[in-house]
Amino acid sequence: MENKKIIQVDEKVPFSVGIPLSLQHMFAMFGASVFVPMMFHINPSVVLLMNGIGTLIFILITKGKAPAYLGSSFAFLMPAGAVISKLGYSYALGGFIAVGLGLCILSAIIYKFGVKWIDVVLPAAAMGPVVALIGLELANSAASVGLIVPTKDVPVVQTSNVIVFLVTISVAVLGSVLFRKFFAIIPILISIVAGYITAYFTHVIKWADIKAALVTGFFTVPNFQTPRFDITAMITIFPVILVLASEHVGHQLVTGKIVGRDLIKDPGLHRSLFADGISTMFSGFVGSVPTTTYGENIGVMAITKVYSVRVIGGAAIISILASFIGPVSALIQTIPGPVMGGISFLLYGMIAASGIRVMVDAQVNFSKSRNLTLTSIVFLTGLSGVVIPIGEVEFKGMVLACIVGMLLSLLFWAFDKLNLLNDKEQ
């Protein structure tokens, strides 16, 4: 184990090694995943529970061939927020279930008609920048969570936060290239510990907060809620399915590049999308937020070269246990923003680099004007800040870039079939 450079998807790991590796995955998704329920003003424990269950469902449906951790989806914040303000959270749950059902139906369509259309609507010249944008558009989020840029809530950057952020990311960066043997596969976990200790000594977190977490009641029950259904609420939230489908395809492609397997074909996009939809539906029925494959955990795999589904399954089990054990859940919630931001900063960068790798591996010929134009427009659309609102849903960033890339790709494909393109000889 210690001498292995890569731990593949189907490989087993010893229990003593698997625990820290699983903790690493759980910590990586925690900050972003609990942010969503906090925005909806619900208890994060039910989200930790359903993230874990959703991940196990995903692993089961994909036959353990697609390493992915399911966390809380940010795509629902705007439309669900609008529904909650008017009707209440229970009606938003009905909308979540509708979207999950829609993903299941979409997976059936993909199963029927295959995935060859992906090469037409998203060739490498478009898919590369779309994947890169998954990480790039989250760069500001990592900096904001890390409290190293002024925000609405924290207008002045504190030196202590900067120190914690720098220690965390420095340990992660240096560890990823310098650590050896067992430590080489847990640099994220080590950096979180280093950041947490630094946060204590710089007074970013206080002993009173840690003590309060430790004396929390040992056994807690997540706050379950039941959904209600309203056609207006469902119509308001349903367009998010376009966001989720685009994000899912991007995540599966970049994960496939990292692990060296074509996950779109095996276990198949229809299986992974169906698993995503089922998880979102189950979450809606018990009061949790929708789930989606998580970029943070893709970043962990890129850095550590540990792709084992068993490790991710272990992280899911830990998340489930944490939702019922009060002190564990409370202690995890004391991890300060600068620590999570420092980790996310590196992980999101890894995703962006993976998008560039898509184009390199496909040997995209940028002497052809169609490829140069396609990549340029997709990148600029995603980074420009352009927002197109449709009802309560906003299309922007990676999702808008993906839609624009698909439309342009289809147009160029049609021009190519009609022999109208001017780069045939290039």
Question: Can you put this structure into words, describing what you see?
Answer:
The structure is a single chain. The chain has 426 residues and is mainly alpha-helical. It has one domain. Helix content is 68%, strand content 3%. The chain contains 19 helices and four strands. The chain has helices spanning 15-40, 44-61, 77-86, 89-113, 117-121, 124-136, 139-145, 159-178, 187-201, 207-214, 231-237, 240-259, 264-286, 295-304, 309-324, 326-332, 337-361, 369-383, 397-417, and strands at residues 70-72, 291-293, 387-390, 393-396. The strands form two sheets. A two-stranded antiparallel sheet has the order 1-2. The longest helix is centred in the N-terminal third of the chain and has 26 residues, at 15-40. The chain is globular and about 70 Å long. The model has no long low-confidence stretch (mean pLDDT 85).
Secondary-structure element string: HHEHHHHHHHHHHHEHHHHHEEH
- Arithmetic mean of pLDDT: 85
Shape: globular
Secondary-structure-derived class: mainly alpha
Helix amount, in percent? Answer: 55-70%
Alpha carbon gap, first and last residue: 48 Å
